[in-house]
Backbone:
């Protein structure tokens, strides 16, 4: 039987009109302006700035434990002049300071209780007893329920345990009461409406496994299963229903897989459901596949369809990562998908029970009419709405459809506030059906219109986009981050690793003036996870080879500097294309040579691509001569010329990215290059040879010259024909290079320019109102990502006294939860350090840390792994560190984190700024004043607010520090290329015989 | 009797109509398209680019002595694809290469003869015999004449002698013929028309004295007089008339004065005239003053009124110098002035004879009607038109007014071409009456309209200017160059020198942390023109004072760096205002302390003002945080922070400008400063103390620390608390500073940044087609201005073989013509070098030059001056220098110029680039290909095309070199401030709970 929604439209609209009529005059309590919540909603809808401030304030509220702290935040969030700020807040903002003591206390109590009562609107209870009581009341009103335990992000396995136990506890409490509840509608078999279990529980799977991540699909599913299964067992014991909620897109695949495994494991128990989100572009395929699976397995299933609650998040993340936006970008598209997928499910009602979760009366009407047209039995579908929202809708639904279930969150106010914010946002969004229906009172015809028609109308009314003339390459965008939700991306890694492993181990020659050069001195580069595995036998340049390379580069420079900037840029674009084309093998080599995790390796290659794409565009920009002044009779133009031969001395920790960055900047600028990669990563360094070949760079412009620093390092730096030295590495070496380069050698024709990026001792401040969900994971990642071997790594976390214990507890447990082992295995959070020398050095610092502080965490790999001889060091966290300790001052370059306590923000900033370095830093705070203060006073090259201090992206996070961290340049920033070039100015007197051609931009008479 | 032009309008228009009617159907030969000239005019009017190329080509033509050279220039000027290029030229441009030998020769002959015949259109003859013949013919046709001898710029006294002799020669030739000429109209007393001398000669006074300059008014008048008087005497002997022509504005005052003196000297001879230009805004006043003078002296005079031929030049110069534009900017305003001033002269016909020189029929009609209304006797006015132009007008005039005189240039084709270009431009200008009348055939009503009405119409038709919202300070413009045509400006100098001299000689204390500090060690700064005159007794800082100053600066830095960039800019604007307010005394001190000529001193103070005004604006620009990337959910901003304490080590040659430049850049950027002026110019350096006080700079941000380099120089550079060293001076010291600064000292917290501007050995290339009028004066000024003591000074002039002799001859004579002596006297071109040490050093190099080359010029001051003990050295030019000579490689910093011969442009560029330095350079050429080639291959920091290599202006000529000339930064350029700052980036994650406020410039979904 074929049913088409458009043919049903008249009935749908007619039913919708009836629905509206049946609830005429009613309004959801959330819009009731007599209440404080209603007022806030009203203000928020009128004023976007206030909305942002208000919702952020609500978000931070549970962290504001003292009257003083609350006052301060009110002041900071609401002290603006805006007349749209509610008086109670404005008054609060201005008066708490003046009134002091008593006034402040009264005011604070009022505000706190107002906001808490807002939260209670949407949350059925804070403890299980309250929840049970609330449910009882709902059932009395004729509504079924589904219970959801609110939770913070689980950053550790301990927290995941606690979360699981929370569910078991509430189920226990319900179990005690269950016998007393009569089935709704007097249903048979103790089932609501005669077919539905009275107990219904929803679970968000990612919270049950703190180590969930797309790249480790199997580990994630197994981890989630381990804690959800006990809850499912308990539910089954109570004859209940469990629904697995869908969260953000990155967990979708794991969630579906979890559902399937659980369903297969208990094939005879039918009450297991899963959620799909209509806003996903993939929703049709996803639902179709699961229905096919259910048919194939012959296992009845249940699907709840929702619109989806992470639209902003998914869109922002996609835009930030330059991924395709995975959600529909027009609201009616989601509505269309909802109706379409509902129909698909209803068509499969033989195998699938359907829960329609929508507040949209058009959608509900469409589902009802479709079900009716398809003759779907009533027990095969039900309706769900959120507790505390859309009361008129739920009432109307109960009247017409009976089978209405309320989604009831319960739990602490702390996670409750986050939930509250989501609900408030949903209610105030311009496109919200509820807002349109009950706050804006939009035209009923529009509200009930077929979304296809709405979409057409919206698209028609948009102005035609201005045709932008594209001259030259498009605007720079960062290369997309690896998306491990895509199976092909996950599979590419092991495949490429196998490929690369099969061919590695051979001789790696030098490359000078377009030719391979073999030397007898060799350095063997090995896999740090297994030093017996040789990655390459790398020829080492001596002073002779360096001299030859510099001579070749000097010759090549003379013509390369005069190649048009656009032509030089073209070569970089081609090089970028080569990297894009071979990205997985490039990543694989990094996994094997320096022990990068998959995502870290991918980020490194992406950054290399970014440098090429960015510097190429930058050179096109700088390549255009700039007219200086506007005097008539004179044409004065400023332009740039490459300085000469650049010696590029690269580090091993970003073996491709930083090498390509420094080298391509030099080449884009019109310099030629002698490139010395780090010994440890010389095989990755050799990728540049292949890259420039593919790009068609003329011979001699790039020369690959690995060699022992002790043999040829000084010689390279001292050479009179070197004009630029671009170095990234340790402070000690950087300073030595600067000192040597400043001495003019016989025959030297130019002052050398040294671009030195050196060390860091980066701090992260945790303010007392920090969002710990983000702060704990952020610090963990910044400190231990790639084993802490980043100059940007967090090595000091400076925690404010009042949040110290909570933060440390969560951080320590989080650190104990991550997995250690070879980087090849994507389950592992941390692998071996780069080589034996690094291992030795880090172990030495761990001893110092142990002497100076108290060990909170010291986690080693398993003995099995140790036995492989891999360069592992323990993941180490110590506290009790003060700024005078060595471990607080010296760069370790390994997974060692010092925890430092600060009594207030003054002290925290003082500690943060107390080292010789000034590279990166981070602060987690939700105080607008402290955000602003840190921006000013936390003096580092790259400061991150509510973000980890690592992972700088080209352009967006132009990277580099000052003090002893570097010379104050920014790689991937708008001033970087200037360092490789000399400015030249040519000024022509265009007046002859008293006559000058007048240019358009002359300062001429009007 | 009162006559108003507007009341005469009906008669004027009616007479104009008659005039038009009388010449109906006639057209000036210049627009005759049957002739080559007419075609060129036609093409030029249709195509602005072709016009520029064509007229430039005409200009260079006389220099193209060989067939090859002519071919090459045609190729370069006309090889474009433009369809508007005449075939003969296009064909010439493409075929000369291919056809080779014979074809080229034929073609070249054609083009050359075409252009020469164009010139003959406007020039009555090339030698006196031809001129006399031409005149005879004119007189036969009923026209009187006034003879003008064309001339190149006279760059030396020898050339001025030659020019004078040219006049005497032609007068001699005329005298022989004179008796044969019957007076026109059969006038009585052997006078034309019964009242006008048959012989009439015009002189351009500036050409008669090569050292003419506004700043030396008296010297200029005396110099002009010395060579014009003999001509006047000869004229009187022949009973002739002499008219003194008016040239560009800068000679106006001297010309008027010359006229008065000559008129007074021969009071009984009435036939002396002068010219005024109606396009000058001052024309009413100028004419009125002269008429009053004539009345007062009771001396009859004659005035020729012209529109004025230097409109473009005067406007361009005013705009380049930021002077008020001295000419009317709307053509009808000049026409109005012409009618107004004509009337004024006619009203004074009792004392003043009037020559109306205009081709504009409206103007002519107005003059006729005004004269008639005023009953001016016919013998009191006449009409003049240019030979070869406006033939219909002259014909019409002869018919109605009889008394028509043709202005007849004669002379060599070389200066003739320059004259030709002026005439061609005038004929093709859009606003030209001739073009409108005879080429465009504009509406007669418009042509005869009262210019007042025309002006109103033009103004009304302009769009209302867009109201630009002025946010912050206006766009940067350079401070105006001193305008010595203004008497007050000339008088200000001696006055200020007297004032400063009266109060100088006292103690000059250090200034540290807002307080004067007196030390016992003193250095006496003296006047290099008279070492016995002490300018100041300057306290010298030792290491103790340096330490105290650095400590003060370190403290001040901590708060200064956080002062908002706009506030810092404000301080700079106030400092600039202080300099503007006290400019003459600041100049006077430089004249006395370092021997700067007036204009040089003024340029130095102006540059200081420019630095303040420019860097203030630059800091406002850099002060705005720049958003990086456009990712939603993230706000990433790049901004800058001052590096710390800057040690500024300044030179004495631009004692205020470079000091203020380096210091203000540091201060604008948020650094604090310890400033060490050069010992020789420490008193000028102390001006900075007063300046910053006046600007309200907080204590400690600027510290004045003069001292002996040997005592405290290294200490200042080595100090661990110094972050930036800004140095301008010799290469030796610069390299020493760089080397020392690169060594990290104990306790040092940052890598030091050294900004070093060092020496130069600047070359100027003279191509074989260079405009020698400009090249000779440009090289002279670049080599000997301020005694060659500029890092930008020309010390090598590289001359192409084929023009070598001509250039050298003119240059040598020019060098012999300039005056030497104290800079206080504005007549002197060159004064003493800076001090005894400089004198000794330069004398040493002169000995080297004498040994290595052949002395062409070695000019010393008079023995009287030598006896004063002033630090004089000879002005020296040597030739026979090759690039291996020391004098071609080492910086002299004094008035020593090496002449080097190059066989072609390849060799010239090779020589130019052959030193360790790469600071400035210049080339004089009229070959488009060589201009382009030099722009690319003459590799210096500042290259000037057809301009001297000195006199860089802030912004317009952002200044600085590379190789051993500096570190590749540009003072007064857009990248300069970056060197004093560290970039910082703050990146905020603005997403909370999946919700991010979307910014307008986010890369968001469409």
Residues:
């Amino acid at each position: 039987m074929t049913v088409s929604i458009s043919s049903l439209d008249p009935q749908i609209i007619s039913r919708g009109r009836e629905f509206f009529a049946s609830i005429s005059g009613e309004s959801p309590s959330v819009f009731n302006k007599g209440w404080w919540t209603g007022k806030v909603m009203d203000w928020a809808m009128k004023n976007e700035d206030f909305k942002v401030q208000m919702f952020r304030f609500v978000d931070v509220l549970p962290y504001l434990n003292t009257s003083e702290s609350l006052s301060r935040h009110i002041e900071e969030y609401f002290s603006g002049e805006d007349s749209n700020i509610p008086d109670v807040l404005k008054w609060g903002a201005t008066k708490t300071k003046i009134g002091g003591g008593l006034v402040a206390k009264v005011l604070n109590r009022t505000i706190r209780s107002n906001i808490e009562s807002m939260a209670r609107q949407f949350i059925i209870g804070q403890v299980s007893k309250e929840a049970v009581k609330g449910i009882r009341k709902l059932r009395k009103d004729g509504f079924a329920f589904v219970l959801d335990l609110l939770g913070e992000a689980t950053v550790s396995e301990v927290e995941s345990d606690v979360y699981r136990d929370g569910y078991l506890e509430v189920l226990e409490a319900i179990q005690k009461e269950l016998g007393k509840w009569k089935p709704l509608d007097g249903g048979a078999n103790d089932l609501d409406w005669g077919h539905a279990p009275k107990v219904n529980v929803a679970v968000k799977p990612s919270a049950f496994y703190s180590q969930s991540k797309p790249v480790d699909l199997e580990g994630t599913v197994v981890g989630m299963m381990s804690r959800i299964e006990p809850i499912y067992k308990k539910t089954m014991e109570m004859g209940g229903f469990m629904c697995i909620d869908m969260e953000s897109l990155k967990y979708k695949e794991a969630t579906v897989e979890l559902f399937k495994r659980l369903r297969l494991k208990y094939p005879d128990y039918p009450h297991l459901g899963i959620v799909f989100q209509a806003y996903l572009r993939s929703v049709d395929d996803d639902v179709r596949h699961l229905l096919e699976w259910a048919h194939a397995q012959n296992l009845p299933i249940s699907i709840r369809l929702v619109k989806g609650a992470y639209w902003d998040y998914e869109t922002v993340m996609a835009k930030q990562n330059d991924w395709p936006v995975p959600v529909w970008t027009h609201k009616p598209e989601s509505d269309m998908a909802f109706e379409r997928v509902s129909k698909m499910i209803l068509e499969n009602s033989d195998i699938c029970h359907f829960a329609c979760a929508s507040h949209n009366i058009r959608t509900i009407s469409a589902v009802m009419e479709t079900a009716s047209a398809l003759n779907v039995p009533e027990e095969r579908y039900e309706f769900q709405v959120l507790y505390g929202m859309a009361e008129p809708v739920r009432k109307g639904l109960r009247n017409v459809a009976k089978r209405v279930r309320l989604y009831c969150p319960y739990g602490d106010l702390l996670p409750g506030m986050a939930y509250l914010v989501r609900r408030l946002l949903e209610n105030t969004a311009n496109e919200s059906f509820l807002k349109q229906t009950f706050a804006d009172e939009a035209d009923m015809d529009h509200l009930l219109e077929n979304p296809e028609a709405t979409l057409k109308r919206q698209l028609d009314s948009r102005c035609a986009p201005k045709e932008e003339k594209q001259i030259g390459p498009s605007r720079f965008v960062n290369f997309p981050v690896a998306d491990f939700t895509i199976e092909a991306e996950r599979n590419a890694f092991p495949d490429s690793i196998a490929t690369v492993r099969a061919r590695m181990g051979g001789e790696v020659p030098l490359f000078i003036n377009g030719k391979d050069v073999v030397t007898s001195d060799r350095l063997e580069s090995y896999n740090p996870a297994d030093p017996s595995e040789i990655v390459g036998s790398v020829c080492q340049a001596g002073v002779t080879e360096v001299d030859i390379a510099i001579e070749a580069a000097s010759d090549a420079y003379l013509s390369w500097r005069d190649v048009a900037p656009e032509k030089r840029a073209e070569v970089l674009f081609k090089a970028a294309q080569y990297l894009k084309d071979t990205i997985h093998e490039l990543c694989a080599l990094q996994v094997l040579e320096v022990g990068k995790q998959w995502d870290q390796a991918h980020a490194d290659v992406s950054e290399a691509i970014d440098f090429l794409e960015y510097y190429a565009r930058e050179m096109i920009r700088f390549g255009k001569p700039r007219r200086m002044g506007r005097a008539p009779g004179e044409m004065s133009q400023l332009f740039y010329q490459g300085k000469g031969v650049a010696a590029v001395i690269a580090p091993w920790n970003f073996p491709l990215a930083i090498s390509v960055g420094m080298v391509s900047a030099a080449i884009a600028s019109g310099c030629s290059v002698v490139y010395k990669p780090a010994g440890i990563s010389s095989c990755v360094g050799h990728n540049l040879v292949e890259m420039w070949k593919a790009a068609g760079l003329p011979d001699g412009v790039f020369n690959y010259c690995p060699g022992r620093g002790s043999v040829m390092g000084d010689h390279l730096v001292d050479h009179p024909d070197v004009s630029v030295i671009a170095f990234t590495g340790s402070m000690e070496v950087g300073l030595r290079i600067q000192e040597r380069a400043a001495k003019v050698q016989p025959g030297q024709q130019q002052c050398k320019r040294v671009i030195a990026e050196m060390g860091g001792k980066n701090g992260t401040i945790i303010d007392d109102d920090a969002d710990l969900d983000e702060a704990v994971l952020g610090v963990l990642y910044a400190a231990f990502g790639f084993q802490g071997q980043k100059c940007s790594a967090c090595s000091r976390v400076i925690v404010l006294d009042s949040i110290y214990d909570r933060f440390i507890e969560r951080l320590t447990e989080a650190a104990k939860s991550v997995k250690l082992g070879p980087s090849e295995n994507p389950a592992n959070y941390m692998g071996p350090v780069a080589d034996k020398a690094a291992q030795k050095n880090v172990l030495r610092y761990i001893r110092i840390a142990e002497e100076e502080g108290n060990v909170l965490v010291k986690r080693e790999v398993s003995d099995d792994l140790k036995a492989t001889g891999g360069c592992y060091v323990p993941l180490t966290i110590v506290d009790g560190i003060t700024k005078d300790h060595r471990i607080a001052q010296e760069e370790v370059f390994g997974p060692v984190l010092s925890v430092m306590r600060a009594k207030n923000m003054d002290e925290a900033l003082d500690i943060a700024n107390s080292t010789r370095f000034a590279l990166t830093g981070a602060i987690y705070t939700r105080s607008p004043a402290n955000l602003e203060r840190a921006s000013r006073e936390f003096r580092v090259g790259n400061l991150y607010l509510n973000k980890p201090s690592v992972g700088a992206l080209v352009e967006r996070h132009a990277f580099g520090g000052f003090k002893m961290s570097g010379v104050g340049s920014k790689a991937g920033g708008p001033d970087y290329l200037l360092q490789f070039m000399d400015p030249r100015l040519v000024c022509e007197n265009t007046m002859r015989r008293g006559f000058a051609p007048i240019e358009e931009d002359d300062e001429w008479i009007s």
